[in-house]
Design a protein that fits this description.
Radius of gyration: 23 Å
CATH class of the largest domain: Alpha Beta
Order of helices and strands: EEEHEEHEHHHHHEHEHEEHHHHEHEEHH
Structural class: alpha/beta
Bound molecules: adenosine-5'-diphosphate, magnesium ion
CATH superfamily of the largest domain: P-loop containing nucleotide triphosphate hydrolases
CATH topology of the largest domain: Rossmann fold
Largest sheet: 6 strands, mixed
Number of helices: 16
């Protein structure tokens, strides 16, 4: 786990790039540092692995003050992924991935075994890529190799600075999903920098929103969306925060709060949806007029009732006590 206590950083002795920031990342959680460009996210991240020195306060990783740890030792225990992971151009993909195990003196067999595990974890064919060079790979593939490389020596902590920021939106969504799947298996403690609220609510167990070096709110994605604590956070999260919050709720959550309609109305087109689906997907099917209503089915595929736009709207009003309505969404 990572503790950040009253941490400050000034580069010029006058202005604070990071200003008295405190928060705590529990073991196995992902915390997203979110905020506009220049608000101090990268500075804070790079203080954790001591690429940037701390002006004041304390950071500890796995219950040990980082200042008391040898820098090289510290960095071996912390995977670091940046936007454009500079893979070594003259090394093969396998050599790139095992750079740290190599420095740690692992045997050839151990390194190759680890290479294969990581390629499988990231859904890349180990045989196909083994002898290839970075320039033969697409940007998305290189980024996956960069993540595999950061995981190579199995560090308990990962720092990720806008790791998917250079990818196009479709690829980014795909890699985010893939990374969530990987993280559910490996359960690293992760600090993840983003300037994108959608990415933050998707990737974070908690989100830390910064403004000019100060931590404005540190909360779960759902709390940030439904109860922003300041106009800065509300504006940053955006006018469509109600809609965004729907992606954090399932049809089942709605069923707990409201009753579904009992049966199909005549002449309406209906489509099955699982209780496990999120409400944003449910809404988008209805708004795209793929169906007039949704037939909600449980795990045994039995129908448990009908979901309509107006039920989603009622739910939204219950969850988000704000001015947002679905009118803005439909427009
Ligand atoms: N090496 C540096 N020297 C001087 N100022 C810096 C340096 N790195 C960052 N800054 C300043 O610190 C502030 C925070 O920057 P940064 O941490 O890169 O923000 P973010 O990652 O949120 O965009 C900015 O005002 C930036 O200009
Ligand atoms: Mg940055």
């Amino acid at each position: 786990m990572i503790e950040v206590e009253n941490v400050t950083k000034t580069y010029d002795g006058e202005t604070y790039a990071v200003n008295d920031v405190s928060f705590h990342v529990p073991e196995g959680d992902t915390v997203v540092l979110l905020g506009p460009s220049g608000c101090g996210k990268t500075t804070l991240l790079r203080m954790v692995n001591r690429l940037v020195s701390i002006t004041g306060g304390m950071i500890s990783v796995n219950n040990q003050d980082i200042q008391t740890q040898d820098k090289i030792q510290l960095r071996r225990n912390i995977g670091y992924v940046i936007q454009s992971n500079a893979l070594f151009p003259n090394m093969t993909i396998e050599e790139n991935i095992v750079v740290v195990p190599d420095m740690l003196g692992w045997s050839k067999t151990e390194k190759h075994k680890r290479y294969r595990e990581l390629m499988e974890l990231t859904s890349l064919d180990p045989d196909y890529y083994q002898k290839r060079y970075p320039h033969e790979l697409s940007g998305g593939q290189q980024q996956r190799i960069g993540i595999a490389r950061a995981l190579a020596a199995n560090p308990p902590v990962m720092l990720m600075d806008e790791p998917f920021g250079a990818l196009d939106p479709i690829l980014r969504t795909h890699i985010q999903d893939e990374f969530l799947r990987i993280q559910s298996e490996i359960k690293k403690t992760i600090l993840f920098v983003s300037h994108d609220i959608d990415e933050a609510i998707k990737m974070g167990d908690k989100v830390a929103i910064f403004k000019e070096g100060q931590l404005m709110q540190y909360d779960t994605p759902s709390e940030i969306l439904t109860h922003p604590n300041s106009s800065f956070v509300a504006d940053f999260v955006g006018q469509d925060r109600a809609l965004k919050s729907l992606s954090l709720h399932t049809v089942e959550d709605l069923v707990v709060m409201l009753s579904l309609l009992p049966e199909n109305s005549k002449g309406k087109v209906s489509k099955d949806i699982s209780m496990r689906s999120n409400l944003r997907d449910a809404l988008s099917i209805l708004l795209n007029q793929e169906a007039d209503q949704l037939n909600v089915v449980n795990e045994q595929n039995q129908s448990i009732g009908i979901l309509t736009i107006s039920l989603i709207e009622q739910y939204l009003h219950g969850v988000v006590k704000g001015k947002d309505t679905l009118e803005g969404v439909k427009a």
